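Suppose a colleague, Dr. K., hands you the sequence of a protein chain of 353 amino acids and asks what its three-dimensional shape might be. Before reaching for any lab equipment, you can write down a predicted structure in token form. Begin with the sequence itself:
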Amino acid sequence: MASTVFTDAAQARTSLDSSMFVHAEFDTVEKKFKRDGDDLRKKGYIDGFAAIAHFLCDRQRFLASLERVSKRMWIQYRYCDRNEQNKFTKAMGVVARRYGFAFQNQMQINTNGARDRARGNAPIGIVLVAGDPLLGTHVRKKLFWKDSMDSRHGEHSHSLQWLAIAESGVVGNQTADYYAQTVDFRCSNVGLSVSLWQWLVDCFPSDMKKFATEKLNKSGETLESDSFRSPQCLMDYLLMGDRRQLADHFISTYLYWRYRNRNWLAEQTRYSDEGDTYTVVDDIQTRAIATHRLDRRSDEQQWMAGKVGGNVVRYRRNPGSGPSPGGNGKTRKEGHEVRFHNIPGHLYDSYAR
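The predicted structure, expressed as tokens, is then:
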């Protein structure tokens, strides 16, 4: 079956109905998921998830909501101290908290304590890799995280999807509650191997359809979707093509510089009819984000390795290392005057060299 893009919520509801998503829990003894409750319809969530899926397929509505999220994040970014680290994710955390999402501090899940949330209101200390058993725990606790999948999938793509959903008001003020439920329902037609999270926000565009082979229902529907249900489609929008088109967009510009400074992009310089130069991004490399500067991380004292299970390793910065706020000239961050969403401010050197 070709790419699935819902033209209305009724289509999305039919898909959910026919795919038979049921409440399931992982059996730690038998090492597999087992049904342990009712389906989406009986739980009362089906119409809300259908509305969310349709919203993610409605390009105009989604991008308008994402634009508003970008403006909110830019306003918060401007309040960060120039030498503060992780300004982007901290700005994202401030915005997300307003919609009922929670945050972790360093490697720990932290959903208790206003003081801790205020100090660590951004997903800056942890990345989840494929098959990580903490995925369900994080989503149920309404936590965001940086995803280490690959550059085209994006570190923040899922967070941006859900912030756009929340900003749209498509399920009122219950977005974080719906977010938390996505990992508890699984498709019974394929032996519970596909979660509602995957169906809703972790699909694949058509150029990656080889990863979307399981048929979820009798219609032959798979996880192939050329919509913002696929994180790759979101990152393509934010990064690919003529950079002039999103020059006023904070999220797009920040991520462009982040990717460019890490050599995660292939780009060309072109000339306009007036003789001016402009940049066109042709490709986003698909190397796993977790491998970025891995050789340096393992050798530097400021990085601490933490085993999660098997050979899966996370790295986090030692809290006692790194440049101190307001340090010497070598660590002081220099701001570049910019204007996003018609609001002036400074973008700092790590992302605007």
